[in-house]
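Thread: Multiphosphoryl transfer protein, structure

OP (GT): Posting the sequence first so everyone is looking at the same thing. Length is 840 residues per the record. Can we get the structure tokens written out before standup tomorrow? I want them in the notebook alongside the other entries.
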Amino acid sequence: MLQVSESQVRLGFAAPDKTEAIRIAGRAMVDSGLIDPGYIDSMLGREAVSGTYLGSGIAIPHGLPDARDLVRRTGVVVVQFPQGVDWGGGEPARLVVGIAAKSDEHIAVLQRLTGVLGDPAEAARLGTTRDPRAIMAVLNGEAPPAPATEPVAVPIDGDSIAVTAPSPHGLHARPATALVEVAKRFHAEIAVRHDGTTANAKSLISLLRLGASGGRPLTVTASGEDAAAALQAIRAAFDAGLDEPAPTAAPVEEPAPRAAPADLDYEGLDYDGRVIAGISASPGVSTGPVWKFQREELTVAETAPDPEAQHRRLDQALAAAAADLRNLHEAFWKKAGAAKAAIFKAHQELLDDPEMVVEAHALIDRGKSAGWAWRAVYEERAGTLAQLADPLLAGRAADLSDVGRRVLRLLATVTETMAALPDHPVILLAEDLEPSDTAKLDPAKVLGLCTAGGGATSHTAIIARSLDIPAVVAAGPSVLDLENGRAAILDGDGGVLVADPSERDRGRAAEARIKVGERREAERLDRYKPAITTDGRRVEVAANISDPAEAVQAVEAGGEGVGLMRTEFLFLQRDLPPDEEEQFAAYRTMVRAMNGLPIILRTLDIGGDKNVPYLRMPAEGNPFLGVRGIRLCFEREDLFRTQLRAMLRASVVGPVRIMYPMIAAPAELERAKAITEAVRRELNVPPVELGIMIEVPSAVMMADRLAREVSFFSIGTNDLTQYVLAMDRLHPVLAPQADGLHPAVLRMVERTVDAARRAGIWVGACGGVAGDPAGAVLLSGLGVTELSVAIPAVPSVKARLRAIAMADAERTARDALDCADAAEVRALVRHRFADAGGVS
């Protein structure tokens, strides 16, 4: 077994920065006969690629794999820097353990070193000790760190304060998260002791493992240049309750437990069952069993040949999952407030736990794959938490599993199989739904949709709104762990799925459904009334449809026309494209159903997220920037001409408008119009109104030129949002952040409307923002005169517009253009229209 000798421990050094500290450690390794001098450069190179700071004042610089021929023998050298060296990230390193490895003999030393990381007090003692034998004993396994018996006498050369765990539930997720956030603001090493056990104050998992219940004494000790300020801030945080809500009644000695203890991070939602939070995508509340539409299996290999690549994979997955959680926190905060969004802050701290990350990387160094290492670490931690006596603290195991699975899904091989739906209605669970999945859904059997990924403009959201069912998206991978048939409540308004609801939960859900039903009945009775604002301005509200049957539904819902007919749905789920007669029959049926109301037929918009195998389109690295929309029509002009013939023949039956998708430049519009005019002359039918989708930034910038050539614009807010913000609306991390109410998108709308006004044409909008409560107000305020929305949303959008003054909408829209982000825009609208029928 590898042993550390006294000659390999160097005490009392100082260095201005980590580069010099690494050189000092490297020279000590050369003196000890472990490496050739050239290996020092490799150690510096490794630091530039991947940081080697472990936490608790310990760093482990080592070289890159391609420099192993410069290692003479396996061993370690420990250099102590009592004053600390800035290693980046704000925490000083006091013990620098230089590693030279020809084999895995050094792993035992690293394992013992990892044990020290769990005790910041012990790490601080070793960082300042004047006895090299103290460091040797720990690294050689001769004397494992022993916890101090007296809580106040914490073995850190620093000051201590006595505090009390917050009541009534102690140091659970929310207060522990608040403590971690305070501790991480300081460079000092900070430890918390409870019943003889020490925890790292900057590690959420470490704090949770203390199991400190409400009212129990704690000792907080800090060591470092800003230790006094850290303790002062921590005392203030404890005095303020560590973000725990103030009790609403006088405390009693034994508070009655709830039927199934809920995570207090969700107290604002007041559910008893297990609450899984996501983003509201379609309003409404439903109760029933869950059913996985797509079964998911995550598999990982145990070993991997390239540790460096696995280190990078893990770091990238952690960064992506962290960004996902930040997006969820922001989205849920702007929908429901800080208290209800607090769980995502706790999840971020679980993900950023230094001990978990260090241990996972150590397993990778032993030859394990990134996925295997990460799963082993988080499952072990979750198992430990689940054993805690306090049920509230034990419940954090589910949160850790959720966080762990978020990362694991980015590291594993994902296998999905389609599951047949049962005969009874269910709440569907899936990663996300594609456009083609719509054909597989029977609305009579779907109570609601809940997906692990996606955002408010994802296909799941669009499908849910079109089916008029509640939906929650971006709920995280753990939602796919729920067993088929498990009872749940889907709260589309609150953006949560509640597993194992109590009877009280079911009662509240029933009350919510009654209120929603009453509001919708009132809207239904007034659905044929025009959307005229209180100051006399009218906005047309049309419907988005995808097949002939929906044309009738659009009229019955109060639609004043069809603002978007997605003709591509005629081309999906088949082996050959529809011929001219089949298309003509479908378009004619729709036109007749409209009974004189206008219908906009959009030409084929295949590509991007909608793929048709029989078109034999080339594989593309980024299909959203490839051959889609009008570009495909030009590539397959035979299909384009056939479709135009069917559309123009149907225009003889009633008012048809034709719209081209994905126009990016005047030349494309000119070519599309020329082909259309040639087909019209062949058929000898009257001209029809032509328009274009505004969904590409270049179209906005050229809107003044384009407006001279068409009768109308229709803004596709979903695509415009992803192109303006450079965020794929189907991206597993960025989708929740792709909000069409971002000021940058609203400014694009303003510019488009201004160009249209100067040319004397009108502007509509047919993306998800048009049916959004706040979006309908802002688009109208910016001058959009037609909103085309999902059929079920027609009555509610009309009712919402009838409840506001256009002057207020215009003023709010102008102010929204000066906001910093979508969250600020939504808060502005919520404040201005708090009494206008639920605008938020």
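GT: Both are above now. Quick notes for whoever picks this up: The mean pLDDT is 81. Residues 307-336 form the longest helix (30 residues).
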